[in-house]
């Protein structure tokens, strides 16, 4: 069976409703995930990797990749997960706190690695608008390139209804 490509949704961070609506539908059945890819201005200078030697560095990409996974419906205390692969170096959570983006109460750090990125989880009852706003704002702080505010959401919906 061939793997189905993700649905794609372009949205602006000034209007999260289209993305949040799709996230809410995925949260209803508790499966799938969303990748959020930011747009970079055409004329922006994006730091490039160092070729072969990047495997020895402790840095991720200059343009962040954010992800969101809904809480599993099979567990009553399940948590949603959010991650950001970024190239801003170690201790991303400390840098986010300096920008008034510390983890909200009830959220937990799962990993904060300079190359693999930042992974946090939040209660499954967390407001999706708040979760997505934090994820995108944190991506701006951790980006090593300017972001326009336009995003591409790649929706990997695994619900039976979406097949």
Describe the structure.
This protein is of the alpha+beta class and 163 residues long. The protein has one domain. Helix content is 21%, strand content 27%. It has three helices and seven strands. A seven-stranded antiparallel sheet has the order 1-7-2-3-4-6-5, covered by helices on one side. A hairpin with a 3-residue loop joins strand 5 and strand 6. The longest helix is centred in the last third of the chain and has 15 residues, at 128-142. The radius of gyration is 16 Å and the shape is globular. 26% of the residues are buried. The model is unreliable at 50-56 (pLDDT under 50).
Main attributes?
163 residues; alpha+beta; seven-stranded antiparallel β-sheet; 3 helices; 7 strands
Count of domain modules: 1
**Could you give the count of β-strands?**
7
| Proportion in helices | 10-25%
Query: What is the H-and-E element order?
Result: EHEEEHEEHE
- Please count the helical segments: 3
Largest sheet: 7 strands, antiparallel
Radius of gyration: 16 Å
| Uncertain spans | 50-56
In spatial order, strands of the major sheet run 1-7-2-3-4-6-5
Mean pLDDT, all residues: 89
Shape: globular
Instruction: Determine the N-to-C terminus distance.
Output: 12 Å
Q: Label the structural class.
A: alpha+beta
Strand content: 25-35%
């Amino acid at each position: 069976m061939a793997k189905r490509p993700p649905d794609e949704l372009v949205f602006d961070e000034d209007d999260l409703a289209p993305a949040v609506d799709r996230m809410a539908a995925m949260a209803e059945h508790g499966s799938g995930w969303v990748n959020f890819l930011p747009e970079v201005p055409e004329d922006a200078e994006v730091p490039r990797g160092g070729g072969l030697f990047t495997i020895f560095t402790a840095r991720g990409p200059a343009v962040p990749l954010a992800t969101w996974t809904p809480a599993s419906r099979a567990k009553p205390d399940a948590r949603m997960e959010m991650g950001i692969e970024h190239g801003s170096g170690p201790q991303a959570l400390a840098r986010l706190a300096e920008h008034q983006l510390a983890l909200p109460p009830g959220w937990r750090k799962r990993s904060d690695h300079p190359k693999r990125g930042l992974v946090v989880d939040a209660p499954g009852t967390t407001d999706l608008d708040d979760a997505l706003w934090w994820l995108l704002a944190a991506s701006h702080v951790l980006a090593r390139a300017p972001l326009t505010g336009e995003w591409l959401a790649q929706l990997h919906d695994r619900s039976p209804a979406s097949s």
